[in-house]
Amino acid sequence: MTRHRRLVHQVRAMGRYTTDEEAERVLTAVVTQLGAQLTGDERCDLASALPDQTRAALVAQIPLPAPVSAPAFVEALAHTLGTSLAAARWDASSVLAALTPLAGPELTDRLLARLPRGYALLFGRPDLAAAA
Which region holds residue 39: left if phi is over 0, alpha if psi is between -120 and 50, else beta? Predict the structure, then answer.
């Protein structure tokens, strides 16, 4: 089984999607949206950690001048997938939590440091900045 297929299966299991096709559609949408949020070394390092097909979705998106807020990320994803905000939050969390083991804790920490507050919850981590 390829790395990409394993990632699709992990997203399918985490998101409780009924088919691989649905999981792959959500994976591609979330990673494409994430690609618009990341620049510099974090973008390159995440791309290096991803399977080829997933990497292509990440780097195909031109980065924005500054990342959008987590709620705006979810809203854009809902629009892309044609779902509700609640479903888009679920989709984002299912994919981002599945990417975390590929990225590893150090890169995930760096990604979260570059993204606005609120993304930690989407990655399946507590939002510790809110407590500070």
Answer: beta
Q: State pLDDT tens for residues 5-28.
A: 999 999 999 999 999 999 999 999
Q: Taking the chain, what is the end-to-end CA distance rounded to the nearest angstrom?
A: 43
The candidate with the shortest Cα–Cα distance to 91, out of 31, 1, 19, is 31
- Its pTM surpasses 0.90: yes
CA-CA-CA-CA torsion sign (87, 58, 39, 10): positive
Query: Rounded to whole angstroms, what are the CA distances from 14 to 27, 112, 130?
Result: 11, 21, 26
In this prediction, residue 126 has a pLDDT band, given cuts at 50, 70 and 90, of confident
- The answer to whether 120 touches 58, Cβ cutoff 8 Å, is no
